[in-house]
Amino acid sequence: MKHIDEYRDGAVARALSDKIRAISTKKARLMEICGTHTMAIFRHGIRSLLPDTVELISGPGCPVCVTAMEEIDRAVKLAQTPGVIVTTFGDMIRVPGSKSSLQDEQAKGADVRMVYSTFDALKFAALNLDNEVVFLGIGFETTAPTVAAAIKTAHEDKQSNFSVLSAHKLLPPAMDALLSMGDLGVDGFICPGHVTTIIGTSSYETVVDEYHTPCVVVGFEPLDILQGILMLVEQIEEGRAEVEIQYTRGVNPEGNPGALKILDEVFTPCDSPWRGLGKIPKSGLAIREKYSGLDAKNRFELSVPPAKEPPGCLCAQILRGAQRPPDCKLFRHACTPRTPVGPCMVSTEGTCAAYFKYHED
Q: So what's the pLDDT on residue 341?
């Protein structure tokens, strides 16, 4: 098969679509586990190019969406703490917790700042020594190395008013959890190129070996996605289950050794709660003892009561691929991008936001 880079968009999209249609005889339910893939699939009308035998479903690939409500409640509690400045990425500000959001607290006078990187938060701490500056560490393996680097830098510089509330998530354990539920019928995974750039392909071997479910690491251009789907369909038709890389221009099988080294130095895997999936063993990242002085959980009292999902909200089921946004009675009515009830409508990578923006029913 020629690599996608050797083609030109229009003719190639049709050629790939025709090839998928020509070889696809078995039902193939493919899950993309990256919000960037979800948005690209909708934006470029990928579904319209596929035969009825191939179904695309969206999984827990949006880090904002899978952040458990109890973690949002802890962030809100931090914002309510006098002398604390909460820094975070933009989407997190609007995600509703049990009773409030960071945006609500900001409107009441709390100091909540949007930043573009952890090092922006670290620089902000150096300029505001009379306040405690806390960064909300969310995201998958793609963003976690930069947070680790900031923690290490703060430790070396003895930046005493900076800390991180870590709610980072690891994708491969979530894939294992999804398959272990046994009721979703996932036949293959469209794996994220950027995450795999960091972790490499070995992390997907459990999915392949234990569940005989093929995985293809895919880039984010429409032709990347079509070729990735073709590679998955080929595996399914041939009865194979392997880890393959479509995104060869960005991914090496061994990942990024430098990023993995700093991740291991600063963080250790821990059990972590996921919205829609519950607590998954070894699916989060806790700050190691050496850097415990920079762990917001050690510096502040952050206990919160158990959280419940908003009445009628199906975000939990949507994140598992068990329901679609139009199945939710709140979708397009009580829940819109201006009045989001759940995180899947808040995030620019959320499945509900994609359905709403591209008028999918």
A: 93
Give pairs for 2-10: CB < 8 Å, separation 24+: 3/248, 4/219, 4/221, 4/223, 4/224, 4/227, 4/246, 5/249, 7/223, 9/222, 9/223
pLDDT of 138-152, one tens digit each?
Answer: 999 999 999 999 999
Please write down the HEC assignment for all residues of 251-319: CCCCCCHHHHHHHHHHEEEEEEEECCCEEEEEEEEEECHHHHHHEHHHHCCCCCCCCCCCCCCCHHHHH
Asked if 17 and 46 count as a contact pair (C-beta separation under 8 A), the reply is no
Q: Which of 356, 351, 361 is nearest to 36 (CA)?
A: 351
Residue whose pair of structure tokens reads 């709390």 in the numeric block: 110
Task: With beta carbons less than 8 A apart as the criterion, state whether 342 and 323 touch.
Answer: no
Mean pLDDT of the region 98-119:
95
In the three-class reduction of DSSP (H, G, I as helix; E, B as strand; rest coil), residue 128 is classed as coil
The whole-model pTM stands at 0.92
3-state SS, residue 136: strand
Domains and CATH numbers, the chain: 1-309 (3.40.50.11740), 315-357 (no CATH)
Mean local confidence (pLDDT), 305-329: 92
CA pair distance 190, 30, nearest whole angstrom: 7
